[in-house]
Automatic annotation (TrEMBL):
<dbReference type="Pfam" id="PF00702">
    <property type="entry name" value="Hydrolase"/>
</dbReference>
<dbReference type="GO" id="GO:0016887">
    <property type="term" value="F:ATP hydrolysis activity"/>
</dbReference>
<dbReference type="InterPro" id="IPR027256">
    <property type="entry name" value="P-typ_ATPase_IB"/>
</dbReference>
<dbReference type="InterPro" id="IPR018303">
    <property type="entry name" value="ATPase_P-typ_P_site"/>
</dbReference>
<dbReference type="InterPro" id="IPR023299">
    <property type="entry name" value="ATPase_P-typ_cyto_dom_N"/>
</dbReference>
<keyword id="KW-0812">Transmembrane</keyword>
<feature type="transmembrane region" description="Helical">
    <location>
        <begin position="357"/>
        <end position="381"/>
    </location>
</feature>
<protein>
    <submittedName>
        <fullName>Cadmium-translocating P-type ATPase</fullName>
    </submittedName>
</protein>
<dbReference type="GO" id="GO:0012505">
    <property type="term" value="C:endomembrane system"/>
</dbReference>
<feature type="transmembrane region" description="Helical">
    <location>
        <begin position="329"/>
        <end position="351"/>
    </location>
</feature>
<dbReference type="GO" id="GO:0005524">
    <property type="term" value="F:ATP binding"/>
</dbReference>
<keyword id="KW-0479">Metal-binding</keyword>
<feature type="transmembrane region" description="Helical">
    <location>
        <begin position="177"/>
        <end position="194"/>
    </location>
</feature>
<dbReference type="InterPro" id="IPR036412">
    <property type="entry name" value="HAD-like_sf"/>
</dbReference>
<dbReference type="Pfam" id="PF00122">
    <property type="entry name" value="E1-E2_ATPase"/>
</dbReference>
<feature type="domain" description="P-type ATPase A">
    <location>
        <begin position="211"/>
        <end position="312"/>
    </location>
</feature>
<dbReference type="GO" id="GO:0055070">
    <property type="term" value="P:copper ion homeostasis"/>
</dbReference>
Amino acid sequence: MDHSNMDHSNMDHSNMDHSNMDHGKMDHSKMDHSNMDHSNMDHSNMDQGKMDHSAMDHSEMDHGAMGGHAHHHHGSFKEIFLKSLPLGIAILLITPLMDIQLPFQIIFPYADVVAAVLATILYIYGGKPFYMGAKDEFNSKAPGMMSLITLGITVSYAYSVYAVAARYVTGEHVMDFFFEFATLLLIMLLGHWIEMKALGEAGDAQKALAELLPKDAHVVLEDDSIETRPVSELQVGDVIRVQAGENVPADGIIIRGESRVNEALLTGESKPIEKNVKDQVIGGSTNGSGVLYVEVTETGDKSFISQVQTLISQAQSQPSRAENVAHKVASWLFYIAVVVALIALVAWMIIADLPTAVIFTVTTLVIACPHALGLAIPLVVSRSTSLGASRGLLVKNREALELTTKADVMVLDKTGTLTTGEFKVLDVTVLSDKYSEEEITGLLAGIEAGSSHPIAQSIVNHAEAKGIKSVSFDSIEIVSGAGIEGEANGHHYQLISQKAYGKALRMDIPKGATLSILVENNEAIGAVALGDELKETSRNLIEVLKKYGIEPLMATGDNEEAAQGVAEVLGIQYQANQSPEDKYKLVESMKNQNKTVIMVGDGVNDAPSLALADVGIAIGAGTQVALDSADIILTQSDPGDIESFIELANKTTRKMKQNLVWGAGYNFIAIPIAAGLLAPIGITLGPAFGAVLMSLSTVIVAINAMLLRLDPK
């Protein structure tokens, strides 16, 4: 499929078959990503066109972590906490704890009235995020953590105001809970601020992508002078000059110059693509040796990089199964707490009196507040996302972490995944006693010096890496269908294919390699074997997979010989000559056998199988197709990062389970005690102790999440 003349402006990509796309010719300048349907991403409430991710302050966002359900952003928790803190401290200084005056407190006439006024202000201002959040929960018929917090602070505040009124109206001394109310509210505000700040660290992944773009661009003015301008100030229609080796600052179309551009962002392959006038380039791709003049076609939120950031931001808000479990537990706790609190209220009114009943009721509601449970999953995910980003792992789908721990088989693409996707010199062989290896290498580099072909460049680069000077050729001509020939130092040389040479050679040829023969006067004097080189970390990856009990299987579109060569080196099973449909059917058949399948590919021809697999891992800096189909993106294109991801998945899942136990487990023991079940034997929990216990659980959950570490690479 040739996309070069297609208008993608209103195209819905969600149901497209990407398997046969020619992405190298895709016109991204006309592509409107804002209308794209990114597979399973829910963009329904998202105005992508107006989102500026670079300026977004993630620390103040409510990412919907409270039990996996998104609450509206009812103001900045940081701002509310800091403004509420003086009110809370004032209340703590003038009201006793459980009728006991503490050494730091100052009690004076009508201090309780002052406390009531301050508490009212604190309840209205500081409590707003919670009772608005509770309203959201009830509207969605899913009461949970915000509802419990609201119950706790409302009951303690309302009863305290009643206690003060009773003292002055009836003269009866009724104990208030202003101290407990203030501490509870401040702790909750502080906890939510910390949570939002921690969740904001997930923005590291977006920041890492943004760094692919240079900070400044060289803008060509009308008089051909150059002005250095921040990339953020570029506008559509600007002409920018991209020097050799620089990253392209913005999406655009070439109007002058030619070069080879590494578009790993688009193709997942690291082999540079030849670019000429009227070809498109993508911001973040790397220019080769030529100088390009590019007219900017997309900027800001419509650029490729920005769409990547938007997609990741949306993906991070998706709750995983663990978060759904946390929300269900919170819902159960809400109903249990309310029922137990009502039972305690009635029972203690009968057994004792109203003040006693209220003490047990408030304590029950305070201790049931599952703030630690609300932090249990988000803090681990936040820490996990941050750790992953630091290793070049972008986790789009959190559920992939849990599924990876259950994986049975990993299907691996070859080219660009296990191998570099580039032709490199694998071996230089001397076939004549008249020449040394250094001389043969110099001749090879000299005869290829004038060619810009990637294979020729790999030979030249090989000589340069070894510090060997290229032989200077007087004339070089192409031999049609065979290779290249030229004159040097009075000798005639040819570099031709093994087939063109037509004679048997006594030498070991690396499996799957392409062999070129250096000939002098019809006699082979040397040979160079070129091939797709295995990535350094591929061997270790296979060992790691076997250690975790995951079966590695290579599926490649390459021929039998090339596939067999790589498979034998790695010691794994393989499938050769695999079309995208073949790979899809391979993954489908294994899933039908109830196997959990991880698929690893470059995100282009592997897109269908990446989407079908239980976990799809895209190798590359993030191709558009990979963004639509994969769950995990390895920005550094390094198979060794898969090892880091498996480790991250196992450790993250373990921490989630631990935090769910810490965040919810204590409630099921503490709630009955708080309600006074053990009061007959002298064991009771006051509201203040309930708040301390709740806070301790939150601290344990936070510390446990922060202890998540990855082993050094």
